[in-house]
Design a protein that fits this description.
The protein has helices spanning 2-5, 20-33, and strands at 14-17, 45-48. By secondary structure, it is α+β, with helices and mostly antiparallel strands. The two termini are 17 Å apart.
């Protein structure tokens, strides 16, 4: 919701998590709070990433950061 309020389009927002349980909880919360609100909407992706015990050091935010 915060990024949408800052003006980021929903299709440019992805939410990453390392656990399936978190992914389902995030989708559930978003569907109840954001899906029906035309100003917010659902983000493009909510995905689980395969971490396999490795530390995630970098998340690429793209060229248009700011």
């Amino acid at each position: 919701m915060y990024m949408r309020l800052l003006g980021y389009p929903a299709q440019k927002i992805s939410i990453l998590t390392t656990y399936n349980g978190q992914k389902f909880l995030i989708r559930d919360v978003l569907s109840k709070r954001c899906a029906k609100n035309p100003l917010l909407g659902m983000p493009m992706k909510v995905r689980r990433i395969k971490n396999e015990g490795k530390v995630i050091r970098k998340i690429d935010l793209g060229n248009n950061c700011g």
